[in-house]
Amino acid sequence: MKKKILFMLINMNVGGTEKALLNMVAEFPKDKYEITILMLEKYGGFLDLIPGGVKVQYLHGYEKIKSMLNKPPQLVVMDYIKSGKMLKAFNILILYLVSKAIKDRSFFLKYILKDYPVNNFEYDVAVAYAGPMELITYYVLNKITARKKIQWIHFDVTKIGFNPNFASKTFNKFDKIFVVSKEGKKQLINILPMIKDKADNFPNIISPKTVIKMGNEGNGFEDNFGGVRILTVGRLSREKGQDLTIPVLAKLKADGHKVRWYCIGDGGARTEYEQLIQKYQVEHDYIFLGNNPNPYPFLKQCDIYVQPSRHEGYCITLAEARCFNKPIITTNFAGAKEQIKNGITGLIVDSDTEEIYEAVSRLLNNKNLCANLSNNLGKENIDTTTEMKKIYYLATDNT
Questions:
Q1: Torsions phi, psi of 39, nearest 5?
Q2: pLDDT computed for residue 82 by the predictor
Q3: Rounded distance between C-alpha atoms, residue 395 and residue 125, angstroms
Q4: What is the pTM assigned to this prediction?
Q5: Nearest CA-CA partner of 261 in 300, 225, 215
Q6: Among 357, 298, 359, which residue's Cα sits nearest to residue 323?
């Protein structure tokens, strides 16, 4: 009988976390595992890339509770008062005040999800994979029936949206907590030492054969540029650090380098970045390519890859760039040193414009260094598919 595994996340937006899930799901033997992906909403450029045979479900009625989860509570309360729903407004206000006082949204989530029945279909494993952590964590714990339950951590818990009070009351209820980098695991245990025995490292799944195969599909760059192409892949947001690279390009151009910087990805910071591009007068050489579910032809064709993130959990785009043996520069986020050996397989710098500029300049001025980094990277084992044994074990473990 097939083992049944459920992954819950917000949607299938074009992002590293979603891509990591797709990579992992593709590795499950179809004759042994039945995979279900439960999403909060039907949205995202990766929807069409979900492998055949994977069951896809959506949280019915999520659009009705979305505003209560995402809007400031005072606005939600005012909306209900205006519509004459005084009791509901009062309940939400009280729950919000209690949740804020104890720094735990469990009461608030219990009220919002009270009309959702427990899913009595029993899975072998249910995974709170990604999205608004408190909601998905709570839902998997309280509304999904499974023999084993996993909490997955994709981000740096010291940098972004992590509630230790909520986590301390919920994480110990999971059978396993997977963190995508070793450094991230240490950070989590420092905050929640009581979950030490349940925490384990599970890097994002990368299949170099698949990545390289997709790199041979599609056209890649089409601008006939004859200089050095620098590439960055990631959502356009402050955490991904693209704003640090715009003045770097301006300085490189001022130095006389024939170079062009390309960004694959989209996001809320695009308008801000476009204004920054105009400020530094690099409109013709800083190019936004938008979202692309297959960035691999660009990774294959670029001359230098730069990952300027301010923080990451593991960074799947960095892992994918490594598959093409390109000279790489990355900032020193959680997990960077697990992927790159500084000065040997790439250059690691701080999240600082000057340091990124100095590193790019080194590569532009030193072809031998570029060759050495590429050669050394080619000797690395980038395949992480063997990590799948960890989730296979949980699915078959009956203790």
A1: -115, 150
A2: 79
A3: 6
A4: 0.88
A5: 225
A6: 298
Rounded CA gap, 361 and 356, in Å? 8
- Helix (H) or strand (E) holding 345, with range, is none
d(CA 310, CA 315) in angstroms, rounded, equals 11
Helix axis angle, 270-279 relative to 242-254, nearest 10°?
20
For residue 132, the model assigns a pLDDT of 59
Q: Does the domain made of 3-59+116-205+386-396 have the CATH classification 3.40.50.2000? A: yes
Place of tokens 């025995």: 197
Residue 73: predicted pLDDT: 66
User: How far does Cα 266 stand from its chain's mean position?
Assistant: 14
pLDDT, averaged in runs of 10, over the chain (399 residues): 96 91 95 97 92 94 80 71 79 75 75 86 95 86 97 89 86 96 94 96 92 92 96 95 98 98 96 98 97 94 98 92 97 94 98 98 98 97 94 90
Which phi and psi angles does 291 have, rounded to 5°? -70, 145
CA distance linking residue 228 with residue 257, whole number of Å: 8
Fold of 209-378: Rossmann fold (3.40.50)
DSSP class of residue 388 equals G
Domain ranges for the chain: 3-59+116-205+386-396, 62-112, 209-378
Q: For 120, list phi and psi in degrees, rounded to 5.
A: -85, -5
**Are the beta carbons of 260 and 229 closer than 8 angstroms?**
yes
Task: Please tell me the number of Cα atoms within 13 Å of 290 on its side-chain side.
Answer: 2
Q: Do domains 3-59+116-205+386-396 and 209-378 have the same CATH topology?
A: yes
